[in-house]
Structure formats: C-alpha cells, structure tokens
Target: SYPL1 protein
Amino acid sequence: WCWVLLAALVSSMMVGLRVDFSMLLEPLGFVKVLEWILAIFAFATCGSFQGEITLLVSCKGVVNKTITAAFAYPFRLNTVVFSAPDPKGCGGTWTDVYLTGNFSSSAQFFVTLAALVFLYCLTALVVYIGYNHMYQQNNKFPLTDLVISVLTAFLWLVSTFVWAKALADIKVSTGASIILGTESCKAPGTTCHFLSVTSMGILNVSVVFGLFNMILWAGNVWLVYKDSNLHSQWNRISESP
Model:
C-alpha cells in the first residue's frame, strides 16, 4: 500500500511539472539559493563546534598537572566537569568542578531554525523551477510564500540575537574567571592557572551568518511581494476610486 500511495503521489506531482531553470537567474530564485546556502553555513558553524578548556593545577602530591574539560554544541556547560588531577584527588582536597550555565535552548533554537529554513528553501526551489506557472497563476502560493518569508525574517532576528547573547555568556563561563569560582582551587596548598580555551571564532561567524540570513530574508519579503500578482492587485485596488 505504501508503494501504491507513493507512486500515486509522484504521478500527481509530475502532471503539472514544467522544469525551467531560468527561474534561478531571476531575483526570487537567486535569493532563495543564497538563503539555502547561508542556512547551511549557519547550521554548520554553530552545530559542529567542539572546544576544550585547559587548567594547570598544583596541589598535594601533584606539581603542574594539566586538566581539561571538553564542551560542544548544544553547550550544556553545567554538565562539563574538571576531574581531579590525580587519582587521590589532591589528598582529598579536590572535588569535581563543573562549569556554570546551560545554553542549549538558545543554540538549539538557532540551529533548528537553520535546518528548517534549509528544508523550506529546497521545497521553494522545487516549486520555482518545476511549478512556476502554477505559482504565478494561483495567489495562494505567493501569499503563503510571503507569510513564511516575513515569519522567517523575524525568527532569524530573534534567534540570532538570542544566540549572540548566549555566546557572550559562554565565553565568560569558559574564560579565565572560572578560577575565581572554583572551590577546589582555593584549598590550602592548591594553585590553579588558566592555560587556554579553544578559539570560538567559528561561533562568532555563526552569528554573522545569522545576521546575513535576517537581512536576506527581509529583502526576500519585498521580492516575493514585488514579483507576484499581489503587487499588481494592490496597485489596482489603490488606483480604483
């Protein structure tokens, strides 16, 4: 039954198919390709990040031992731990040190939006290339495209600024200031030094891609409105007495 339904769906879609790649050279199609590519970059630059923090610890029975804590997307830092620098836990003075903050909601919001935009752009490109004649003749398609474009531009605005704020907090939570809040480093005879943290330049780039997406989708709103029948209909309404 599944194969029969799938065949029926494919055959119904092929009935009105008129492939025309020239639409990709038009502003509406070209911008959609750019939105598709930028969504991939936004997804990849944020969702693929992996980092590490390194401390240098000296305590009872241990001299200049490096300890590390790895963190990655979706940035649940409160689950990231620095284990003891030696099996005896610095003579019993060391307790596992956890980072602070859970930024998963902001990061996942940003990445999920990028993934959904990627899928929508693919769908829209199929419509533009194969069913542009139906798109132009039926006002429901441009109107749906316009509403989705407005909503997407707004969501890019919100998700980018939310993610930028979360990224600033992540940098604080993984910076040198963590030494001040680490109780194990305050034990008698124990000293801790912050050595390094993985560069977050790629996460900065993800914010930039978010801003580019926001600007591009805002421009897409005008293109969808201008290149559809909605624009001509509005002109006729405004010119009528």
